[in-house]
């Protein structure tokens, strides 16, 4: 395969990144694997580090930078949204309630897709809205299977307890009524990625007077089915 594009600096940077795909490397190891001059490798590696395309590990060796994870997440989110929209539409029609998809966003969660109830009282969450991880059924789902550090950080400020998260894991869904906002109820279930981690939460939400104080009793089955369907689609397309 011809690795020469005709733009020398790009080809050299690509050679360095290609070498780092194999794992951490010192400057000397990068020089040996790329066959580039040491000053060139050093200059380009520092430039790539400035843009977070290259980083350093605890020993000071060069590694691929965090920007690649951010770019991969953006690609996966686009695929996730595309896969989710028809699932959320069916869920909305099945339950009669607005449906949403939430993804972790730092110590918050963000709505990345939604299908609103067309008429009547509804809980409309615009796409792009960031919400708390301390209240609501989606927050419970995203924390219930989170890594310990994030879970404990969330529980320190949450309106729910570790025992409630145990219940979420046991039941496979979460519910809330008046927890995030007075008069609003919701049900959520986890979406699993190919890596075996929860990457998102499918939810429905609406007025508590319609969903009642135990919305899971009526709607948990539909929400869990939707989350399972989305999980299967994502795992077929290998989204982490």
UniProtKB/TrEMBL annotation:
Highest taxon of source: Bacteria
Keywords for the protein's UniProt record, in alphabetical order: DNA-binding, Transcription, Transcription regulation
The IclR-ED domain, residue ranges: 67-236
InterPro entries recorded: GAF-like_dom_sf, HTH_MetabolicPath_Reg, Tscrpt_reg_IclR_C, Tscrpt_reg_IclR_N, WH-like_DNA-bd_sf, WH_DNA-bd_sf
Keyword Signal in record: no
Pfam name, any one: IclR_C
HTH iclR-type domain boundaries: 7-66
This protein's name: HTH-type transcriptional regulator KipR
Gene name of this polypeptide: kipR
């Amino acid at each position: 395969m011809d690795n020469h594009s005709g733009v020398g600096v790009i080809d050299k940077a690509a050679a360095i990144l290609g070498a780092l795909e194999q794992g951490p490397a010192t400057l000397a190891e990068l020089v040996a694997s790329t066959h580039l001059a040491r000053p060139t490798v050093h200059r380009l590696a520092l430039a790539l580090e400035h843009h977070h395309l290259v980083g350093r590990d605890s020993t000071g060796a060069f590694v691929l930078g965090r920007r690649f994870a951010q770019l991969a997440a953006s690609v996966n989110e686009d695929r996730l949204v595309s896969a989710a929209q028809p699932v959320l539409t069916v869920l909305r029609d099945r339950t009669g309630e607005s449906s949403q998809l939430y993804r972790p966003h730092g110590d918050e969660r963000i709505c990345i897709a939604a299908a609103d109830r067309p008429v009547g009282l509804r809980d409309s969450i615009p796409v792009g809205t960031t919400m708390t991880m301390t209240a609501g059924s989606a927050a419970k789902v995203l924390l219930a299977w989170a890594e310990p550090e994030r879970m404990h950080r969330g529980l320190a400020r949450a309106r729910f307890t570790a025992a409630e998260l145990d219940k979420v894991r046991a039941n496979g869904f979460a519910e809330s009524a008046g927890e995030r906002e007075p008069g609003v109820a919701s049900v959520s279930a986890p979406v699993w990625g190919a890596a075996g981690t929860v990457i998102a939460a499918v939810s429905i939400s609406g007025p508590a007077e319609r969903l009642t104080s135990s919305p899971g009793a009526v709607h948990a089955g539909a929400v869990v089915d939707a989350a399972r369907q989305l999980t299967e689609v994502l795992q077929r397309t290998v989204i982490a």
